[in-house]
């Protein structure tokens, strides 16, 4: 079936979500902080109160009861081991952040459904069991969305073809910028391995530190209280902002023109190292975040690899829904994103495909000629990009559905081994995509 337009492109971020894993990041972490001092040297831990009290009843009673610690939001444990406490807090942090994805997975991947699928398909059962048996002891498989795209390509040679089973710790030389961007940074605040004999033991303190920054997003000034260390380590934009002579170096920043939901997704990536699922549990509901708005925010903050991850998530979501970006999205996409960017390419390729391939009645309804003409008239860049694609199409050929193109087509980081020959190269001039025509 030919893809319809994406009816869920307009997101109402003000709607209350029913599932716990759909809660906004500030609601999950809160803004109240606890100061905990551990050991004889009074090693300082600064922790979100919600995380600690939600996971450990002992702290819930201490900080939400009548104890003196509840009044001061401070506690001291001079006889405990700081390294052990660090491990405890790191596990609490990981538990709360991963609970979002676990709740989603448990809803969508029920054990009885998995058993039924494997019982009815011997090949599927064999493939899954082979993967389980091939997994190295003491390791866990990666999220398939974070693997090198070449893992699923046909006819690829080493190092890509056997990437999943035989090279789990290697980075594909073709797609390494994307792969690296989806991992948590290995930088622990600039400390050398010889600075302390127990430096590698401080998982929580090295990643998060104790200094917090307060960020206010949108017209309603949604409040995010974030660990400065991990924010500045993951995003250089904030490193320059909070560790410089800017006014924001005091620990406060405001972004009134940005979308709180998109910033919420960005922060989840900062803390967990992966993008929130774009699709809600219920397909009748709109997607959980706006991909081109998030792309615009990430582009402005110069997080190069994450832009490619956003495009992959967006196109995979649309492919699963058999949808394309709607013509009514065109103006906003071109207004919010720069020339040659992934969202602009995706929009132009989609429109090219609709105009020259899709002949069904629903396509003429969802993509009416009048709406297309209006969008092209209002946006010269869109018009030029689409016309260049039409004029460069080889005779007696048709453009492919954008979902079927190599993901690198819409990436910021270009890799010659992955790029399909979609457009013939000429020496006339360059389009807004940075491609020769």
From TrEMBL:
Domain BTB: 32-90, 213-275
InterPro entries: BTB/POZ_dom, SKP1/BTB/POZ_sf
Record's compositionally biased regions (Polar residues): 1-11
SMART domains hit by this protein: BTB
PROSITE patterns in alphabetical order: BTB (PS50097)
Span list, region Disordered: 1-24
UniProt name for this protein: POZ
Organism: Glarea lozoyensis (strain ATCC 20868 / MF5171)
């Amino acid at each position: 079936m030919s893809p319809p337009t994406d009816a869920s492109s307009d997101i109402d971020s003000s709607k209350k979500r029913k599932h716990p894993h759909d809660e906004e990041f500030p609601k999950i972490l809160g803004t109240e902080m606890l100061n905990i001092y551990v050991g004889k040297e009074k090693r300082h831990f600064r922790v979100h109160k919600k995380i600690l009290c939600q996971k450990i009843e002992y702290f819930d009673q201490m900080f939400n009861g009548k104890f003196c610690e509840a009044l001061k939001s401070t506690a001291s444990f001079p006889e405990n081991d700081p390294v052990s406490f660090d491990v405890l807090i790191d596990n609490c942090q990981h538990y709360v952040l991963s609970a979002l994805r676990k709740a989603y997975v448990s809803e969508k991947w029920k054990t009885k459904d998995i058993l039924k699928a494997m019982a009815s398909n011997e090949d599927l059962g064999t493939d899954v069991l082979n993967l389980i048996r091939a997994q190295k002891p003491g390791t866990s498989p990666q999220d398939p969305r974070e693997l090198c795209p070449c893992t699923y390509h046909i006819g690829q040679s080493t190092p890509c073809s056997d990437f999943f089973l035989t090279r789990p710790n290697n980075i594909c030389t073709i797609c390494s910028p994307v792969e690296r961007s989806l991992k948590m940074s290995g930088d622990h605040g600039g400390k050398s391995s010889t600075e302390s004999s127990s430096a590698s033991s401080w998982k929580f303190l090295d990643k998060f530190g104790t200094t917090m920054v307060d960020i206010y997003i949108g017209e309603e000034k949604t409040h995010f209280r974030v660990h400065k260390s991990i924010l500045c380590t993951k995003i250089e934009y904030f490193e320059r902002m909070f560790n410089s002579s800017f006014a924001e170096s005091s620990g406060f920043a405001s972004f009134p023109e940005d979308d709180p939901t998109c910033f919420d997704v960005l922060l989840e990536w900062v803390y967990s190292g992966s993008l929130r699922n774009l699709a809600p549990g219920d397909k009748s509901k709109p997607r959980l975040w706006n991909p081109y708005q998030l792309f615009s925010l990430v582009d402005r903050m110069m997080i190069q690899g994450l832009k490619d991850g956003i495009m992959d998530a967006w196109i995979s979501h649309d492919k699963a829904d058999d949808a394309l970006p709607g013509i009514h999205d065109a103006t906003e996409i071109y207004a919010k994103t720069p020339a040659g960017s992934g969202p602009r390419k995706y929009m132009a390729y989609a429109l090219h495909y609709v105009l020259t391939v899709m002949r069904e009645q629903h396509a003429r309804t969802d993509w009416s000629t009048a709406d297309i003409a209006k969008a092209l008239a209002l946006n010269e860049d869109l018009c030029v990009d689409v016309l260049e694609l039409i004029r460069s199409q080889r005779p007696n050929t048709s453009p492919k559905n954008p979902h079927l193109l190599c993901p690198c087509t819409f990436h910021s980081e270009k890799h010659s081994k992955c790029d399909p020959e979609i457009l013939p190269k000429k020496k006339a001039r360059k389009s807004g995509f940075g491609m020769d025509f």
